[in-house]
Structure formats: C-alpha cells, structure tokens
Here is the input.
Amino acid sequence: MKRTLEFLRNTLEKNTTVVLGLSGGPDSMCLFYVLLSLKEEYNLNIVCAHINHNVRKESKEEELFVKEQVEQNHCRFETRTLSLNQDKNFEANARKERYRFFEELAKKYKAKYVMTAHHGDDLMETILMRMTRGSNLNGYIGFKKKTECGDYSLVRPLIYTTKEEILSYCKEQNIPYCIDKSNESDEHTRNRYRKKVLPFLKEENKEVHLKFLKFSEELEMASNYLQKKTLDALTQTRSFGKVNLHEFNKLEPLIKKRVIEYILKEEYQNDIDLIQDIHTQSILKLCTSTDSFKELHLPLRKTIVKEYDTLFFAHKKEEKREEYILEEKVVLKKNEWIEKVEATTIDKSNFFTRLNSKELSLPLKVRPIKEEDVMEVKNLGGHKKVKEILRDAKIPKSKRENLFVVVDHQENVLWLPGLKKSKFDKNKDEFYDIIYKYVIMKEEENEK
Here is the structure.
C-alpha cells in the first residue's frame, strides 16, 4: 500500500469530506481502512456509499455488514437499493446509477473527493477488453486515477496495487470483507480476462500493472493535447450549434473524428454508451455527401441533419401552428409580422404585395405552408409547387416548416412573404385596393 498511501498524501487536503463507494468486498474494504488510517491526521469526514444491486440473495446481508462496519468506525453510512431489469444492459445501467448516487452524496455533503476501489488489475482488464472489442483513444485509457468532476474529484487510489496485494493487506490488517461468488464465474467477460490472461502477463512481469498504468497515462497526455486541438477546431467550425462543413472538411481526419465524438458526447451525455464507432463513421460520411439535404437517424430517436454546408442535430420544437384572418395586422413571431399599409413607393419587392379585392375570395388568411400548396407565380405563366419554390430559393428544409403563406378563402396562394408573389399581385399602374407589407425586425432594432 506504499504507493497508494503516498498518492493519497499528495492528493488529500485536510478538513475535507470523502464519499467512498463501499461494496463490502476486499477492494473497497481495503480502501476504507486505508482512509481510516488517515482519518485523524487529515480530519476526514468519510461518507460510505453502499449500493444494494438486489440481484443476489446475499445482497441484504452484505448491506447490513457494511452498515455495521461503517458505524463501528464512526463514519456516515448511505445506501440505495436498485430495482433494474437484469437484461444485457444491466451492468451499464447499474454503473450509471452508482455514479449518480455518488454525485448526489458529493453535493449533499459538499465532498471534495469521491473515491472508488478500482485497482491495477481492474485497469489491465478494462484496457484489454476495450482493445479486443474496439474503442477510441479515450476508451483505451481505461480509467484515470483522478478525474475532475466540477465541484469534486473522482479518485482511484488503489490503481497502483494488484488484487493480490489488496488481499495480503486485508489479511495483515485483519480487515473483514464479503466475497461475491459471481466473480468466479466464467460467464462474465471480465472474469475470463482475470483468470486466464492476467496470470500470463504477471508471469512475464510481476509489475505489469504499472506498465499498463504508464501506457494509460501516456495515452491520457496524448488525449489532452488532441482535446485542445479539437476544441480549437470546434471554435473555428461550429456556430450556434451548426457545423460549417466547408471549414470542417478541411480538418485533419483525426481531428474531424474527435470533433464528431465531442458533439455526440455533448448531445448524448450519460447515454453516450449507446453510440458506437459505426455511428461516428456514418456521420463523417454524411459530412462529405453531395446531397443538399440528408438525415441520419441515431439511437434514442435523435436525428443529425446535413443541410447544404451545415451539420446539426434536429431538435423539433412543439410549436402551436395556427392560421390567422388577415385584416390590419398579423404578428407571426416576436419580430415578424404582416401589416396593411395605405401606400408605398416601392415597386419590385417580395416584401410588399398589391391586391385587387374583387379578384379574391375574402377574408384573406395567413397560415403555415402545406405540402400540397401550389402557386401561380407572377410572370411565370403556370403553377408551381410551393416546396419547389423554396427549394429553388435554397431555403433550408429545417426552416421551411416555420414559413407562412397568404391565401384567400378558397385557398388560392397569393403570396409567399419575402420570397415570391403570385399572379394576383398588381403593378403600380394597375388597379389595386389592398397593400400588405411583410416586416422582419432584427433583434438589435427591436431592443432600441
């Protein structure tokens, strides 16, 4: 435990609170007693967090054992019982619940540290499993001895030790612990690595776990450097949630991949485990597509969109879309409206329309665009689908749903405000008795 104690002495601040994940097994009980040995010297407030996974008949007995041990040593005990489905996602879901519990306790007790009993053998197993399964640079790191999590640090002090050293320490110090017999089963992938691969590596080098730790730390330094490059690239290529593909596709392939991974992590947060390399590769392929509009559907019913030279996640807003009778004025949005005016000197502008009421079926209406809308475009001499007009004008598909048209009572499309006028629009030298103006006010103008 020499390296672990040295690490803790270089890490711990005095008069602080530590939340310790305490299962009752030899690893966590070992760390508990190591912390107890420093408790008085550092004036530590140790809060022990126990998760009852509720999947084995011994679970309740282990909870009572941990509670007794914690209270005997005058520390705080917190517990939570899980009720998760024991499906293929059980381990991942249980892990999320554990760390959510730890975070809640860290906030509750204003803890500076959350500690878990992951050790050197665990790190080796994690790295080997991810190398076999396939991962990214951060995945191959395994886990870090210290991770900053906002107001607290997630710390793994036993990363320098092996399981064998932990068991020896428990025996020397007469530390009681529980045994989870499921850890002996070859049914679990991790157990097979533990029983068959690690012994071979340790025969080659009894301190191979420290070599894996050095490997992990080297990758971490490389990852930190690339992270800086990634954030710089994000600043250059993304604005208001949209990636400029013209600039993005100039980046180095590795940085492009990491930018996409960063955006996915940002979008999925705690559900990032649902994203696989095939999703990342599909998005990278989407970025170079020549299609003006293309969607890619991802887990949790999320959709990423390539629209002209931009890439973004489509977040649908539940907006109430109504139709309005158009008389004097209709406000479409805070800074957007259509109003009746008495006169205008402007002749050729799609922001004005002059109409003859005798040619129309009143009242006029303003309503959202419909899929089937067609319009007799002024000076075109024929009908054209509104969606084709929008496409020709290169209006992004994401914005088309929020556009409005002016129609008469018989649903004749009279005007696409700001974009196109119909055959019903009159020139200045023709007869008209209605003039409407479409107004879009910029935010800064509205604030004056």
Confidence is low (pLDDT under 50) at residues 444-448. The first helix runs from residue 2 to 11. The chain has three domains: 2-207, 240-313, 324-447.
